[in-house]
Description:
Layout: E1 10-14, E2 22-25, E3 31-37, E4 48-54, E5 60-66, H1 74-91, H2 98-116, E6 124-130, E7 133-139, E8 143-147, E9 153-156, H3 162-169, H4 174-177, E10 198-199, E11 203-204, E12 210-214, H5 216-219, H6 224-232, H7 236-251, E13 265-271
Antiparallel strand pairs: 1-4, 2-3, 3-13, 4-5, 5-6, 6-7, 7-10, 7-11, 8-9, 8-12, 12-13
Helix pairs in contact: 1-2, 6-7
Amino acid sequence: MSSSALAARTLKFLESDLDQPELIDLAEDGHIVAFLKTCPGKQEPNDDSAAVIRTRDGGIVLAVADGVGGAPLGYKASAIAMHCLAESLNESAEGADLRPAILDGIERANAEILDMGTGAATTISVVEVQNRKARGYQVGDSMALVVGQRGAIKWKSLSHSPVGYAIESGMIAEEDAMHHDERHIVSNLVGSRSMHIEIGPAVPLAPRDTILVASDGLQDNLHLGEITSLARVGRPLDRMKSLIALADERMSGGAEGTPGKPDDLAIILLTP
Length: 272
């Protein structure tokens, strides 16, 4: 897929079940690779949604939403989050700060999902890239990270969950958390009256940095070191295919002692 795919300024992936990752060439701005897959054996639609939005002045916004599994219409909640985010950004003026538009889009989604009255909810993880800086916005436990060419993590989102907070405080090691009985509990969701949005710092980007945004189908099956290693090495499509292959292996059972949790999967990479 070429850069012309972003001529309409927004690409949305809703209820997607792709056979192969999609490559978007951004010319001097690098490449975006997107992949979404329904949980193996699942009959319902993919609860994960994603969006790639080109702003009026050439910025890029990447977003992944993970509709809460087991809740009513999780796939619809995640789609609403993508629609509201894109609508808000497309309404913003050229040259405007993206932060108000992103926050407004998430808040609109929260109101719309609550108005459904079904108990539906979703996570959302957003990264804006503008003027060689990246900034993340987080509700829930979908992940976003910025990783340097040599593997240094420049920024990583915090999972809004009891286990995520325990990892951040040093109470639980990342390896142990992947097998924790409460690793699927999320304490902050779009579609909740107590929703709050965490805003990350502005992270300066080097020419070879990689940005990844993904649902918990990735981080529940791959260790953080595996994700950063595979996401930053090789051609853009090869990076994504390596992540997919290992996630598929783990979801299918994998080797004894490795994590493994069948789940919907959504991944977006922004690479050199």
